[in-house]
Amino acid sequence: MFRKETRVPDFGNLAAVLERKPTERPVLFDFIIGRQKESMLLEGKVSYATELDAVITNIKAFDSAGFDHASIVVRGLEFARRGHYQTDAATKSLNEGTMITDRASFDRYVWPEPASCDFSIIRRAGEYMNKNVKAIPFSVDGILENTIGILGFENMCYMLYDCPDVVSDVFEEVGRRITDYFLQCLEYDEVGAVLCNDDWGFNSQTMFPPAVLRRYVFPWYREVAEAAHAKGKYAILHSCGFYGGIIDDIIDSIGFDGRHSYEDKITPVEEAYETVGSRIAVLGGIDVDFLARRSPEEIYSRCRAMLRRTRSRGGYALGSGNSVPDYIPDENYKALLRAAHEDYEE
Amino acid sequence: MYLNEIAQGVEEGQAKRVASLVSQAVEEKTDVKVILDSLLDGMSKVGKKFKNNEIFVPEVLISARALNYGLDIIRPILTDTGVKPIGKAVIGTVQGDLHDIGKNLVKMMLVGAGFEVIDIGVDAEAGAFVDKACEADADFICMSALLTSTMAHMKSVIDLLCERGLRDRFIVMIGGAPVTARYAEEIGADHYTADAATAAELAREVLGKKS
């Protein structure tokens, strides 16, 4: 167990962050931790033999790290793609998944159905979570990501001009299914929030004009966020890249409670907190490159400074700028966790 | 008389219209260099708008497609009449990295700025960059990486250039999500640019200073 026994996990802490209230102790947020890091957190006691084993390992790793939640993905809604998109490769081209290029290939495409997902794994996972811990489900990529995956990025750009009706129909098919996935997850008491993970930006601008996102992507997430709120739960966005032109949509139009993913090259998390932290919870944000290439001392120092900055105003949970890949040195990740495990006063 | 319309057609991504106008201009014996300049003028405007976030990647792509429709028509004439590109660049995504959107954008912008671009694709080994740059007698080696874990291979290319005594022969430009000016300095690259339009602008500027 990496966390101290005195640090009792409680989703109420993360809920307070999402309501932008101060918390009594620092709160952690991330949703993807590499398997080697899970092994580090669990001293090698990991198992991925079955889907449930993988979920349990994830829950235990999140518990050991000191999170107040555990992320979970329910398998079965994977959209068929080509090439490396079919694997867990660390590097993928947005161009290589192309399955649909026109109306005929659209008609041939076989869509996965949320009905084939075994959502009961959320209930079974709950049996392994601490009493006050809640699950945060996410999907295998989001609405834009899956649409790009099926169409291929550059092909999709051309299709927006050459056959926009097909693009619209692909968004409709993907959006309806991902939304349905989250609505079903929200039915479970074990779930405290849903995490909509969908990368929308490059470094200097959104991947598509905001008008495209507003038309085809955002309405679905608005439906998810409204459903979460109707159940007294929360909706979190994980979305990489430039968000300058769409932050008002994220906060006001869709109604996300928190946003995860910040990059120093785009908007350092300190700046993000000062500019939008009063309107939406800022989650994570310690740049992955910073975590990978700086010293543990530098990482600890930046994390503590971030916690000092946000303590009285609330609305911040410490974590990575994106995820915790295995190429981040163990000692560096431990430095981040150590910063969160110490009380504010220390 | 079609020249402004050609530039406008590129700017608006009207590929078929650009092809038609360029064909018409060729038939009327318009100086091919003038036609080329019209095409590049259109793409230059696209680059500026892209840099200012007035337009987005899809608009750049359809403009680049329109540019290529025009270039395909005049390329044989350019060759026959000895009109040369303003420079040559070898471009690729480094070893271990399959991301290609950024690389492709830089390629489009370089072509739109009048360069000949030799694209060695993704997951390219250090030797491929160096060998192709020598073979093409390139001015630039342009490298892209999207991951912290793969950008280290940029240094491998520079190390190989040094090892072969070729470091001063090529201008090395790098870019990609985790790449910074500081990193470029650390590994001994000549230039870092934050976006594709700036890369093309800088390449023109650097070449101008060199010559």
Describe the structure concisely for a colleague.
Chain A has 346 residues and is of the alpha/beta class. Chain A is 44% helix and 8% strand.
Whole-number average pLDDT of chain B? 94
Label the overall shape of chain A: globular
Instruction: Give the oligomeric state of the chains in this entry, treating copies of one chain as homo and distinct chains as hetero.
Output: heterodimer
- The CATH architecture of the largest domain in chain B comes to 3-Layer(aba) Sandwich
First CA to last CA of chain A: what distance? Answer: 22 Å
For this structure, the CATH topology of the largest domain in chain B is Rossmann fold
The top level CATH class name of the largest domain in chain B: Alpha Beta
What is the terminal separation of chain B in angstroms? 33 Å
Descriptive account of the structure:
The complex is a heterodimer of chains A (about 350) and B (about 210). Chain A is α/β, with parallel strands linked by helices. Chain A has a single domain (about 10-80, about 125-140, about 170-340), classed as Alpha-Beta Barrel (TIM Barrel), CATH 3.20.20. Chain A has 15 helices and 7 strands. In chain A, the strands form 2 sheets. Chain A has a 5-stranded parallel β-sheet, sandwiched between helices. In chain A, helix 11 (about 245-255) links the parallel strand 4 and strand 5. The model of chain A has no long low-confidence stretch (mean pLDDT about 95). Chain B is an alpha/beta fold and about 210 residues long. Chain B folds into 2 domains: about 5-80, Methionine synthase domain (Methyltransferase, Methionine Synthase (B12-binding Domains), Chain A, domain 1, Orthogonal Bundle); about 85-210, 3-Layer(aba) Sandwich (Rossmann fold). Chain B is about 60% helix and about 10% strand. Chain B has 9 helices and 5 strands, in the order ααααβαβαβαβαβα. In chain B, helix 8 (about 180-185) links the parallel strand 4 and strand 5. The radius of gyration of chain B is 17 Å and the shape is globular. The two termini of chain B are about 35 Å apart. Classes of the chains: A alpha/beta (about 350), B alpha/beta (about 210). The interface of A and B includes residues 265 and 325 of A.
